[in-house]
């Protein structure tokens, strides 16, 4: 490291070279992982719990659990390694010295597979054989601490006895246990207790996460999967509080990892506060997942390869042309484009069906804004409409490919459906994670038009990837003038969402978006919008059922509802039918009253009061 003019070590970079000898450098140092031929002589897995440059206690615990899980997997496959606490903040390093070195492609595949499994892993140094470097065990840190050995001895690295075949086996094991694209559908991280049954209904994967004994090999990840499954299933905070006291998979909210291979009881108030914070985060994920279609494994890998390449190219174009999306309408178009790319990756199909309301809810926009953005993107040839909406089906869209389709994809035969290339699914998971993070962090009540605006949400999301930004760099990210960027930063600073960090601005350590939304008067804005859209869907289905009844012959019409019937939308014969549509005094349909009845829950079969319609 190089000291600045004031003798400080504020920047985490290593621009100087030091000759190897008995005298160590006067500043912290790092060593290259690969030699000049690109062979990795050392591997370093860096688990860090920082968010936008600031240490997060919750993420740091997740990093420790991730490190312990990978360490156990390495031990299981006979790969000798050393575990270090990298600095005083609590980060973890796993060091491996491969026997005779490991080739860069093998290390890159291992790094991608590990990154898909462990979200706190910084795998950049393992994918860069030219410049990849890390601080070795026992070396000093710029905060005054040193890298401490927690498990293993330093001689393990000098002996260089880690088996390369073992690394291949670890890579295969990580690929076999890769989390699903929707994390709550993933397999549990450990054995389950078949006797445990949740007090409310969950998906099969959610029940497995809830019954994972002692949280499995990664209690923090299992705990959040339990919350995410509960949020998707419509549980309340009281439900998850009850589960946190009884469910084996919720061990993370009862005990804490000590970092020494054991766990201790967590403070009651700390556990409750953490549960509530992560429950809010799980609700944000659930709102994005509810609009997704059913998961289907891709049958044509040629199409999946094309999808991944198209989305990767699209994200690159969005990054290098910020000026094209600088206006408020442009930012809305970019969000809709990201949502379509997210759907494309989730389905693995080039053509996806997406309704305007689903895209609006996924991006935090209104339905009219989403519709305008779709038409603008179609006009600018970023997307293509394959089929229009009709018959109750959403319109089908396709991302416009950057290049023409190659000759090998003309016919869908076995020879044109090759095995997936190495890293395809890991690359897909990485792109899904990027889009997911961008959509979630900008989708909030505070960043609606009634709040701070969609561009403020876009900048807040980009700050999650940066240590800090200045006014000029923020203007470059958004493609706006420095004056307007200063205005957005001022609004974020007013609500204490960002703080000073040197010459720039960084995210606050606490996420105060909910507090800011309440003070601005927009709290619950997106939830109310989702309820309105759901009411509009039910009203439309009700009216279509009414039309079908009106246009059918009298003998084919269903029986009129009895006073004891519970109206439901179903094709089953008998009393379980829908009531008559409300009418005005002139016998015309009263759509306004119908939507109000739906909003009040009059058609809900579990409602105490039912709407029976006209006699």
Notes on the structure:
This is MarR family protein. Residues 177-215 are annotated as: Disordered. This protein is α+β, with helices and mostly antiparallel strands. It folds into 5 domains: 32-176, Alpha-Beta Complex (DNA primase, PRIM domain), CATH 3.90.920; 183-289, no CATH class; 303-403 and 422-440, Orthogonal Bundle (Arc Repressor Mutant, subunit A), CATH 1.10.10; 444-523, Orthogonal Bundle (Arc Repressor Mutant, subunit A); 527-599, no CATH class. It is built from 19 helices and 18 strands. It has helices at residues 57-76, 104-117, 155-159, 164-176, 204-210, 219-232, 237-246, 268-289, 301-320, 328-347, 356-363, 367-379, 424-442, 454-463, 471-478, 482-494, 513-520, 525-550, 591-599; strands spanning 31-32, 39-40, 43-47, 50-51, 54-55, 82-85, 92-96, 102-103, 121-122, 133-134, 148-151, 255-257, 263-265, 351-353, 383-387, 396-399, 498-501, 504-507. Strands 9-3-7-6-11 form a 5-stranded antiparallel β-sheet. A 3-stranded antiparallel β-sheet has the order 14-16-15. A hairpin with a 6-residue loop joins strand 6 (82-85) and strand 7. Helix 2 packs across helix 13 and helix 9 (301-320) packs across helix 13 (424-442). The model is unreliable at 404-415 and 570-576 (pLDDT under 50).
How can the largest sheet be summarized?
Answer: 5 strands, antiparallel
Shape: globular
Estimate what percentage of residues fall within beta strands: 5-15%
Count of DSSP strands: 18
CATH third-level topology of the largest domain: DNA primase, PRIM domain
Q: Tally the helices.
A: 19
Low-pLDDT stretches? 404-415, 570-576
Considering DSSP H and I runs of 4 or more, what fraction of the residues is helical?
40-55%
Mean pLDDT: 85
Tally the structural domains: 5
N-C termini distance: 84 Å
Task: State the oligomer.
Answer: single chain
Q: What would you call the structural class?
A: alpha+beta
CATH class bucket of the largest domain: Alpha Beta
The CATH architecture category of the largest domain equals Alpha-Beta Complex
Taking strands numbered 1, 2, ... along the chain, how are they ordered across the largest sheet? 9-3-7-6-11
- CATH homologous superfamily of the largest domain - what is it? DNA primase, PRIM domain
Region (Disordered): 177-215
Protein name: MarR family protein
Organism: Frondihabitans cladoniiphilus
């Amino acid at each position: 490291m190089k000291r600045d003019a004031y003798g400080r070590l504020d920047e985490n970079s290593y621009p100087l070279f030091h000759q190897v000898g008995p005298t160590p450098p006067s500043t912290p140092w790092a060593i290259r992982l690969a030699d000049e031929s690109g062979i990795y002589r050392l591997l370093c897995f860096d688990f860090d719990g920082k968010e936008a440059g600031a240490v997060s206690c919750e993420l740091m615990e997740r990093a420790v659990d991730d490190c312990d899980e990978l360490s156990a997997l390495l031990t299981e496959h006979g790969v000798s390694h050393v575990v270090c606490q990298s600095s005083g903040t609590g980060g973890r390093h796993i060091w491996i010295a491969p026997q005779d070195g490991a080739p860069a492609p093998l290390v890159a595949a291992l790094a991608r597979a590990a990154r898909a499994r462990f979200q706190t892993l910084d795998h950049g140094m393992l994918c860069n054989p030219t410049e990849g470097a890390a601080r070795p065990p026992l070396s000093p840190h710029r905060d005054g601490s040193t890298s401490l050995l927690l498990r293993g001895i330093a001689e393990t690295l000098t002996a260089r006895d880690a088996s390369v075949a073992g690394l291949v086996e670890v890579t295969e094991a990580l690929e076999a246990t890769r989390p699903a694209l929707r994390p709550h559908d993933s397999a549990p991280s450990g054995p389950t207790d078949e006797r445990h049954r949740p007090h409310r209904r969950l998906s099969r994967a959610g029940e497995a996460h809830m019954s994972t004994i002692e949280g499995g090999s990664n209690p923090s990840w299992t705990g959040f999967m339990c919350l995410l499954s509960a949020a998707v299933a419509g549980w309340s905070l009281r439900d998850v509080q009850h589960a946190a006291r009884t469910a084996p998979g919720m061990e993370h909210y009862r005990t804490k990892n000590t970092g020494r291979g054991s766990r201790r009881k967590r403070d009651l108030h700390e556990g409750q506060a953490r549960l509530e914070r992560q429950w809010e985060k799980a609700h944000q994920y659930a709102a994005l997942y509810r609009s997704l279609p059913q998961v289907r494994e891709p049958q044509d890998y040629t199409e999946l390869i094309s999808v991944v390449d198209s989305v990767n190219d699209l994200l690159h174009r969005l990054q290098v042309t910020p000026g094209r999306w600088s206006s408020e309408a442009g930012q809305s178009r970019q969000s809709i484009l990201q949502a379509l790319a997210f759907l494309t990756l989730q389905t693995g199909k080039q053509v996806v069906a997406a309704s305007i309301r689903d895209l609006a809810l996924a991006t935090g926009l209104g339905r009219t804004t989403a519709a305008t953005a779709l038409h603008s993107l179609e006009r600018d040839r970023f997307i293509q409409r394959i089929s229009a909406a009709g018959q109750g089906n959403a319109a089908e869209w396709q991302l416009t490919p950057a290049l023409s389709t190659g000759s090998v994809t003309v016919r869908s035969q076995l020879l044109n459906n090759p095995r997936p290339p190495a890293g395809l699914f890991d690359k897909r998971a990485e792109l899904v994670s990027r889009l997911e993070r961008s959509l979630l962090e900008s989708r909030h009540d505070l960043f609606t038009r009634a709040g701070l605006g969609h561009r403020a949400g876009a900048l807040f999301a980009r700050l999650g990837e940066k240590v800090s930004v200045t006014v000029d760099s923020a203007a470059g990210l958004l493609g706006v003038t420095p004056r307007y960027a200063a205005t957005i930063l001022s609004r974020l600073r007013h609500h204490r969402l960002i703080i000073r960090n040197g010459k720039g601005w960084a995210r606050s350590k606490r996420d105060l978006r909910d507090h800011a939304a309440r003070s601005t008067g927009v709290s619950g804005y997106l939830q109310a919008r989702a309820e309105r859209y759901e009411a509009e869907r039910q009203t439309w289905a009700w009216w279509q059922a009414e039309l079908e009844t009106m246009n059918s012959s009298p003998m084919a019409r269903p029986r009129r509802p009895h006073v004891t019937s519970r109206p439901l939308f179903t094709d089953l014969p008998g009393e379980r039918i829908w009531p008559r549509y409300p009418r005005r005094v002139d016998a015309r349909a009263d759509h306004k009253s119908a939507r109000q009845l739906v909003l009040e829950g009059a058609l809900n079969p579990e409602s105490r009061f039912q709407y029976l319609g006209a006699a």
